[in-house]
Amino acid sequence: MQLDSLYQEVILDHYKRPQHKGLAATYDAQVHHVNPSCGDEITLNVSLKGDKVAAITWDGVGCSISQASVSILSDLLLGKSIAEADHILNNFTELMQSKGTMVGDDAILEDAVAMAGVSKFPARIKCALLGWMAYKDAVVQAQAKL
Amino acid sequence: MAFDPRVVRQDFPIFERTIREGKRLVYLDSGATSQKPNSVIEAESNFYRMHNAAVHRGAHQLAEEATDAYEGARETVAKFLGGTADEIIFTKSATESLNLLAYAFSNGGSDNRFNLTSADRIVVSEMEHHANLIPWQQLAKRSGAELTWFAVTPDGRLDLSNLAEVITSNTKVVALTHQSNVLGTVNPMAAIVARAHEVGAVVVLDACQSVPHMPVNVKDLAVDFLAFSGHKTVGPTGIGVLWGRADLLKDLPPFLFGGSMIESVTMTDAVWAPSPRRHEAGVPNMAQAVGLAAALEYLSAIGMAEIYAHEQNLGAYLLKRLQEVPQLKLVGPLDMNERGAVASFTLGEIHPHDLGQYLDAQGIAVRTGHHCAWPLTRKLGVQATTRASLYLYNDEEDVDVLIDGILGAQKYFGDK
User: Fold this and answer.
1) pLDDT tens, B182-205?
2) Is A62 close to B351, i.e. CB distance below 8 A?
3) ipTM of the assembly?
4) B202-206 vs B225-229, strand pairing mode
5) With an 8 Å Cβ cutoff, are A124 and B21 in contact?
6) Domain CATH code at residue A66
7) What domains appear along chain B, each with residue ranges and CATH number?
8) Which domain, by its residues, includes A70?
9) Does B375 sit behind a cis peptide bond, omega within 30 degrees of 0 on the bond before it?
């Protein structure tokens, strides 16, 4: 069934065992993003060290897609350079906007390729992107402080 | 003749199609918008085919026919609500109806009876849809009036224990929903209206969730203004209604300015036309008004009392079946005498968006989220809920399919 292409094992794993959930006490920037159509909320902390993403922690409430997506992101972007993380983020955004025509490059996206199925469900793309947009916002704010 | 939703469904062409790989459409989202019978679709398109012209202007036969059709629609709406035609204002939506009122209140200058100042109070409730909260909240900001509200009890009723303290002698407006779009609660209006009128306040009723589902008579309710939307009432989108008592409408300043709403105009001033024309600037949504009239005629032919009785029975069945599901928690009162046939609930750890997605894969359409009543969902302590809302074309089988779907979702998300 098409539903299985949305709810990949990896997504449900991250949903049930979220990574880097729980906000760190110190951070360079903290952002709070909301999906106004469903009320999903994410607070995300970022710390930078030089040009590297030194820490990403988050807390939130929402559906399996929004929560798994931010969990995957926090795992994937941690320790990357800001430029690498940007590249991954752009790649992921493109995949989400592909309306099911792309499968995603697992060399770049790793676990995040499991989100490919989301792009076939227009109502859920915002869910998948919520954490990523929060990360993008947080990094811009953190860099502004440097 | 006994009411048969399966026969009713034959009037609604959308039920002939299938959903998600051939599933029967189980439409449980009429609280968001209702489906349309053939008679409405035909009335709207027939206006374009046969009678299209700008109403109230044009010296030709089509303009005459269009005006007759549009004004005839006004008569139909008036009859449906128990008011008179000059009390019916067509808008593009109930949201616009409520905004029109809230803006009109602050458009008249200090000698207008609707003018509000910092000495006045506006009363709403915690269970309002955003459309009947934000216009008043913003009017309070514009005018300096104080905004206050009835709280909602844990079981989803209006807390009226402090009625006289909420509706104080300086209260000018009491704007409430007739039936909550989330909880299904039907608010007991008589006591509220009596108190509001005792202090000289006007009562504005958001009847979006009641007019489609039960007999609603503005005289029996004794309210002062009432808004409802066409598209939730088996009518077209793009048409809403604002009913107002004639003696109030005559003093209500206009909100939108332009063609059709004036008596005379100079370069520096304008004199308003009488209501309802004063409140209908521009060429109105004519085909949609005609479609709405066809919708109300369709509902009237079946009988609003029959539709209400059907929904009461089916609503009771829905509540009973939902309560059999483990971990499912309903919001709102459980007594059908106090509510309509809409049920919002949470399902253990399964997020409403995920449940909605699973149900969609079974052909079942529900609404998920905060249902445009964010303050209410916050008050209830839930982030989001899943809502099933019933109408005249739903039957027990639809409810059974929903319950099977919910149990299936628990298995699907539980086993993974």
Assistant:
1) 999 999 999 999 999 999 999 999
2) yes
3) 0.89
4) parallel
5) no
6) 3.90.1010.10
7) 5-30+304-415 (3.90.1150.10), 41-300 (3.40.640.10)
8) 2-145
9) no
